[in-house]
Specification:
The chain has about 160 residues and is of the alpha/beta class. The protein has a single domain, classed as 3-Layer(aba) Sandwich (Rossmann fold), CATH 3.40.50.620. The chain has a five-stranded parallel β-sheet with strand order 3-2-1-4-5, with helices on both faces. The radius of gyration is 16 Å and the shape is globular. The structure holds 4'-phosphopantetheine. 4'-phosphopantetheine (PNS) binds next to strand 1 and helix 4.
Length: about 160
Amino acid sequence: MRRAVCPGSFDPVTNGHVDVIGRASALYDELVVAVLVNPGKAGLFDVEERMALLREATAELPNVVVTSFSGLLVHWCQRNDVPVVVKGLRAVGDFEYELQMAQMNRELAGVETLFVPTAPQVGHLSSSLVKQIAAFGGDVSHLVPPAVNARLVQKRTEKESS
Ligand code: PNS
């Protein structure tokens, strides 16, 4: 069985992530979407909720599995016998850091990286921008899956009334 992992923070998942996950899932028998547990960095959503939102956003992709990981990605790959990491590339700005990580992951453990260029319609998306826009009342319904939009609106409403 050919398996790959698509790792990230996913705080929260955007339509850009969904584009990359959907296209990568067509290339493998199983695509594991792995959310980084980063104790040093509290996100807007906790890891459980990020995973729930990812599961909802990928519900129509039967070969996508959502999990979480902590520590080095290559150690997770070794433990789970997954030889390929999938990363989305939005623009040249992403490339330098992603290339460095890909080369390091290969050097550390022979793990290969597959870069998927994002669709141009979602190439400008990032979780950080989405959170910023939503926090100030901007409409992000066209940038994120419906469940994510609903939670962002809910969080803003809660904050405004507290
Ligand atoms: O969505 P992000 O925040 O850009 O994802 C970055 C992520 C989680 C893929 C990357 O930080 C990572 O792989 N972290 C795990 C720790 C690790 O393996 N670091 C060494 C990379 S060479």
